[in-house]
Amino acid sequence: PPELTDKPNTVLKEFEVIGYESPDASGYAWPLGSFTYDVQDRTKSSLQDFEIPEKVVGQDVPKLAAVTLAIDSNWGTQVSCLYRFRVHGSEDDDDDEQ
């Protein structure tokens, strides 16, 4: 929310999340989604969650080792400010059975 910064125009607005199976972010880039961070809605927390689909381009998303955040826009300035970007996931239980 705007009360957390004196420059709300620098907060990211539209962004994409891209995943890679390789830890060095090489190989196929899995397009995990395009999202909008809503800094103007005062009813929303500064911590916002964005769900990643289980299937991308008709395929199950594999276990990923690296994630890239691509900032497409902010709320009105030439620079963007990002305090924290968290990624949470879970281990696939099927791997333990093989």
Q: From the alpha-carbon coordinates, what is the Rg to the nearest angstrom?
A: 16 Å
Largest sheet: 3 strands, antiparallel
What pattern of helices and strands is seen along the backbone? EEEEEH
- Estimate the strand proportion: 15-25%
Chain-averaged pLDDT: 86
Helix amount, in percent? under 10%
Derived from helix and strand composition plus strand pairing, the structural class reads mainly beta
Q: Can you characterise this structure?
A:
It is built from 1 helix and 5 strands; from the N terminus they run βββββα. By secondary structure, the protein is mostly beta strands. It has a 3-stranded antiparallel β-sheet with strand order 2-1-5, with no helix packed on it. A two-stranded antiparallel sheet has the order 3-4.
List its salient traits:
two-stranded antiparallel sheet, elongated, single chain, 1 helix, 3-stranded antiparallel β-sheet, mainly beta, 5 strands, 98 residues
Task: Offer a concise description of the structure.
The protein has 98 residues and is mainly β. It is built from one helix and five strands.
Q: Mind sketching the topology for me?
A:
Blueprint: E1 14-20, E2 30-36, E3 55-56, E4 59-60, E5 66-71, H1 94-97
